[in-house]
Structure formats: structure tokens, C-alpha cells
Design a protein that fits this description.
This protein is α/β, with parallel strands linked by helices. It folds into three domains: 204 residues, Spore Coat Polysaccharide Biosynthesis Protein SpsA, Chain A; 109 residues, no CATH class; 79 residues, no CATH class. The chain is built from 17 helices and eleven strands. An eight-stranded mixed beta sheet has the order 3-2-1-4-7-6-8-5, sandwiched between helices. Strands 9-10-11 form a three-stranded mixed beta sheet. Helix 10 packs across helix 12, helix 11 packs antiparallel against helix 12 and helix 16 packs across helix 17. The longest helix is centred in the last third of the chain and has 24 residues.
Length: 410
């Protein structure tokens, strides 16, 4: 039987978790003879390779080794060994639903399709505030993607549960192995630019059983993300990083203190951050949730700025990278629509002309401008109503109900 899908699993010293995952693959509703599993043991010092070699599954299983080159290299190595037309990537700490592979394969209607699966965060019975906060953020990300009018972005790609055609993956040369982290976001950015069609598969469920992420690892990861975002900007000059813009654009004393402190007294600032991190345990123990939340936000802000500055080299260069973006478009790439003439007509016009930026009017009154955002899929007609609701509700209400607005002001 022809192998249609290749499941690629990078792993590092997690033999027990990997064995459980292989067991769940035996229960897949998709024919076992129609998919293969490629385990890439990256710098493993435990019995991972021996366990996989001795495992006797009902599907084709191979293992290859790398000397600790990182997850991006491991995934690329697995893809190079794959025979399937569809590549499915999953982390080694996942509990896969029985329809996991079936649902991924079902949504691939052409070689441009990219499928993002649902990866709910599985918590231990007595999870702390940090783990609960992380799960809430993670769940919001997926719930947004479930909406039919969701407009996909580069950062919707999660390397722990997604699939792509082998042809498209190879055309883009896979993951960028030079990045410190966020290699999935960078690949997502290139996939969007290549005209990929993103889809969300809620039924392709894989519980994320991460038991190692704690506050300290989360903060150090935030620093790595700052460095990686500068690397991505260097690779893609048109990349707009809204997270960095948000932090750098704040006109607050606290932000100014953080930036100056990182620039001139990094060692002292790191020690202060370390003390604040230890205080988080005190806040949690005594259920001081407001203090915990404020400190958590400031610490993540600090380490992200720390990474940005380290990656850029100086604040001047950082500001240049983040805040200066030249995204000039020609007139053919812009569209002016008049929603007074009907939303359906406006939606049809958007689908027909596929603009990169839109000026939205109601009659002769400007409602708002929808600017071009690299890394976000092209605007489609079915996005319009959500855009109007989320971004321009007050402006539209002021035009439709001017007398009511006047009454409220007086």
C-alpha cells in the first residue's frame, strides 16, 4: 500500500514519553499501512534509539540520529527521509487522538495546504499559577483559529502539530536552522508569502503533555525569542513584529528604566530580575495574584527586551529594526470599498481584486484603513465583517447613528 503521510517526531532523551506516543499511533483510525513514523533522536543519551529499534508496530517505523543539532535540524532530517506526500510534525510529548492522522490528511486538498492541529495543554492535577496562565494563553490562540472568519498569520504555525505537503516544504527548504528559536514562526512567514492556504483542524487533537516548562524556563525562552525576532527581521526586512513594537512603543517610565538599565547595567538588572523571579514564589504561596500578575508581566517584558537588545547590538539599531518599516504599495495593490453599497458587494470586490490594503468608506466618510501586514494571509471577502466588528465598530456606529453618539457626549 502506498504511504501517503509521514509523521516526523524529533526527540531528546524522552524514551518513556515517546513509547507512549508510539502506542497511541497503533490505535489510529487511518490505515496503519498508509503512514510511516520517522523518529529523529537528536543528541539522545538514554535508550531512545534502542527502544525504537526494538519496537514492533503495525506501521512503518524508522529512527535516525543527530548529534544534538536542535529541533529544526531534526525536523529537516526527518523530512529528508520521508516518503509520504504529506509531512505531519508532532512533538515527542504528545497524546494523539485516534483521528489525528486521518484529520490532517483529510484537509489537504492541494499542495499549497497547511494544516494546524489542535494541541490543548494538559496540566498536572496541582498546577501552579504560571502553568495555568500558560494554558489560558495557549487555549486562546487555538480558540481564535476555530472561528470561520479567522485570518491566519505566520505565528499561527505551531511546530508541535501541523502538516504540509512534502513538495511545498522542500521548495521552501524546510526550517531555518540558524535561528535560536521561533523557527516555526519564520517558516510560517515564508509559507504565507508563498501563498499557502492555512486551515485549522480541531479534530486533529494532540494533548501537549509538557512537564518541564516552569517560570524560569519561560523567562529564558522569552530572552531567546527576543534574539530570534531580530534574526527574523534580518532575514526578512519587511517583517513587522507587533510584540516588539508594543513594548518599544510604550511611553512609560518603567519601559525607559528597563531599556536604560539593560543598556548600561545588564549584570545588575539581571540580578534584580532574579530577585523578582524568586519573589514570584512568595506571591503564589500567599495568593497575591495581582502582585504575581504584575511581576510576571514585567519579568517577561524585561527578558524579551534583553533579548531584543542583545540581538540588535544597540538601542539605536533596535529602534531602527523594529519601528522603521517601509511598506510602499502601488495603486493596483490597494482597494477602496464603500460598505454603504452593501457588504456582499464589498466582499465580492475583495475576492475579485485580492488587494493587499483597503480603505473602507461609508458613502463619502472614511471608516478606516486596513494596512498591508506582511505575514498575514491575503484579505478575503469573508474577513470583512469580522474586521469591521473588531477594528472599526466605533467609527461605523458614529456614521450610522450620529444622533445617538451626540446624545452620549451631551
Amino acid at each position: 500500500m502506498t504511504i501517503t503521510a509521514s509523521l516526523i517526531i524529533p526527540t531528546h532523551n524522552r524514551s518513556a514519553s515517546l513509547k507512549m506516543m508510539l502506542g497511541s499511533l497503533q490505535l489510529q483510525s487511518y490505515p496503519l499501512q498508509s503512514f510511516e513514523v520517522i523518529v529523529v533522536a537528536d543528541g539522545c543519551k538514554d535508550n531512545t534509539v534502542e527502544m525504537v529499534n526494538n519496537y514492533q508496530p503495525g506501521f512503518h517505523l524508522i529512527v535516525c540520529e543527530l548529534p544534538g543539532l536542535g529541533a529544526a535540524s531534526a525536523r529537516n532530517q526527518g523530512a529528508s527521509k520521508a516518503r509520504g506526500q504529506i509531512l505531519i510534525f508532532a512533538d515527542d510529548d504528545m497524546e494523539l487522538s485516534k483521528d489525528f492522522i486521518k484529520e490532517h490528511v483529510a484537509l489537504h486538498t492541494n499542495e499549497k495546504t497547511v494544516v494546524v492541529g489542535y494541541s490543548p495543554f494538559k496540566l498536572e492535577s496541582r498546577a501552579g499559577i504560571q502553568r495555568l496562565t500558560l494554558r489560558e494563553w495557549w487555549e486562546e490562540k487555538f480558540q481564535e483559529m476555530r472561528k470561520k472568519d479567522h485570518r491566519f498569520k505566520y505565528d499561527n504555525l505551531t511546530s508541535g502539530n501541523f502538516s504540509v505537503s512534502s513538495k511545498l516544504f522542500n521548495q521552501l527548504k524546510g526550517f531555518n536552522t540558524s535561528l535560536l528559536c521561533r523557527e516555526d514562526y519564520e517558516l510560517g512567514y515564508r509559507l504565507v508569502k508563498a501563498g499557502s492556504e492555512f486551515r485549522f483542524a480541531y479534530a486533529a487533537k494532540a494533548f501537549h503533555c509538557d512537564e518541564v516548562t516552569n517560570l524560569h524556563r519561560s523567562l529564558q525562552r522569552k530572552k531567546s525569542e527576543g534574539i530570534a525576532d531580530i534574526q527574523i527581521k534580518q532575514l526578512h526586512p519587511d517583517f513587522i513584529n507587533k510584540e516588539a513594537i508594543y513594548y518599544l512603543g510604550q511611553r512609560s517610565i518603567s519601559k525607559a528604566v528597563l531599556v536604560k538599565g539593560i543598556q548600561y547595567f545588564p549584570i545588575i538588572m539581571d540580578r534584580i530580575a532574579g530577585f523578582a523571579e524568586r519573589m514570584m514564589n512568595f506571591f503564589e504561596r500567599w495568593r497575591l495574584l495581582s502582585s504575581w500578575s504584575t511581576t510576571n508581566y514585567r519579568l517577561h517584558q524585561y527578558w524579551y527586551l534583553r533579548g531584543l537588545l542583545q540581538g540588535a547590538g544597540s538601542y539605536k539599531q533596535l529602534y531602527q529594526y523594529v519601528m522603521h518599516n517601509d511598506l510602499s504599495l502601488n495603486e493596483q495593490q490597494k482597494l477602496t470599498i464603500d460598505v454603504e453599497k452593501g457588504l456582499k458587494k464589498a466582499e465580492e470586490e475583495i475576492d475579485r481584486l485580492t488587494p493587499m490594503a483597503i480603505d473602507i468608506y461609508y458613502g463619502n466618510k472614511l471608516i478606516g484603513k486596513l494596512d498591508y501586514e506582511p505575514g498575514e494571509e491575503p484579505i478575503k471577502g469573508y474577513h470583512l465583517r469580522k474586521i469591521l466588528k473588531d477594528r472599526f465598530s466605533p467609527e461605523l456606529a458614529a456614521v450610522l447613528f450620529p444622533s445617538e453618539i451626540f446624545k452620549k457626549k451631551n
